[in-house]
Amino acid sequence: MALRLDGKVLAKAVEHRLSAVIKEHQSGIGRPPGLAVLRVGDDPASAVYVANKEKACARIGVASFGAHLAAETAADAVLGSIRELNADPRVDGILLQLPLPDGLDERPLLEAIDPEKDADGLHTLNLGRLLKGESGPRSCTPAGVMAMLRSNGIDPAGKRAVVIGRSILVGQPMALMLQAANATVTVAHSRTVDLAAHTLEADILVVAAGRPGMVGAEHVRAGAAVVDVGIHRRPEGGLCGDVVAAEVEPIAAALSPVPGGVGPMTVTMLLVNTVVAWCRRHGIDHGLDDLIV
Ligand code: NAD
């Protein structure tokens, strides 16, 4: 039976560490770290995600800021809100909740976020820093996957890693992080021919295709570590991932569950980026280097 890569347990442990860092330095700095979540429109899933992020902030002592703008807000007004948050000294991390309503182009808005406050790690400058191995906020989902591998003693160095998916949100930064950790990385995508021929070579398989149940026993090499990034609502209720867990569990050495795997770690890495930015702004040694890949 595969080792369970439990994101919920790890998220809790990381939250404890963040909370301790905040307690130690808050009185010296004179304020807690601040995370601003900017939401535009009424996407129902976003409402749940934003509420979860605000709850996570409250648990560890990060102050929540931000705004909920109407769906018909003009791009200029959203830009104005981002600029205000950039200038707000209480705010260390800014997140623009996606998706935006139709008609709003997310690219110039994401680029307007101060790169040092880019809690999601998706600013072009920060993706460039990742590419060059320079420090900066990292994309939360792949950084969460790296933390899960590390905390379970899975060292990518010298291993063959396959990432399914090449999005800017997950697949691309994931491949860069695994490569930076000295894995030999293959990126598979929707135009890959004979996917299984690639995935069967993987010691570490990260699945981020957004296709429910697309990875089964026929894709997984015995003893591989499999991380399921996909998350889908089943028509009959409940959540599932891109991996058929029941098929893969008996073959893999390790598997992340859905729910309770990558999801909780994504929110936690948002907090890590915020707390680290707070420390950096005040020249404080945060001791969280193992979480910053
Ligand atoms: P996306 O749609 O932007 O990208 C999907 C990628 O998968 C593309 O690069 C595409 O080429 C590839 N792909 C699609 N079908 C494929 C196939 N049959 N074979 C090989 N490759 C294929 O999605 P995304 O934003 O990268 O997200 C991927 C999944 O991860 C989604 O289910 C999303 O909901 C989930 N996700 C979860 C978290 C989390 O916190 N757990 C965070 C981000 C994304």
Write the layout of secondary structure elements.
Blueprint lengths: L2 E2 L2 H23 L4 E7 L3 H17 L2 E7 L5 H13 L5 E4 L9 H7 L11 H9 L7 H12 L8 E5 L6 H10 L3 E5 L6 H5 L4 E4 L17 E4 L3 E2 L5 E2 L4 H4 L5 E2 L6 H20 L12
Parallel strand pairs: 1-11, 2-3, 2-4, 5-6, 5-7, 7-8, 8-11
Antiparallel strand pairs: 9-10
Helix pairs in contact: 1-10, 2-10, 6-7, 6-10
Nicotinamide-adenine-dinucleotide binds next to α10.
What does this 3D model show about the protein?
The protein has 293 residues and is an alpha/beta fold. It folds into two domains: 30-114, Leucine Dehydrogenase, chain A, domain 1 (Rossmann fold); 140-263, NAD(P)-binding Rossmann-like Domain (Rossmann fold). The chain is built from ten helices and eleven strands. The strands form three sheets. The chain has a six-stranded parallel beta sheet with strand order 1-11-8-7-5-6. A three-stranded parallel beta sheet has the order 3-2-4, with helices on both faces. A two-stranded antiparallel sheet has the order 9-10. Helix 2 (44-60) packs across helix 10. The two termini are 29 Å apart. Residues 141, 164-167, 169-171, 188-190, 192, 195, 208-211, 214, 229-231, 262-263, 266 line the site of nicotinamide-adenine-dinucleotide.
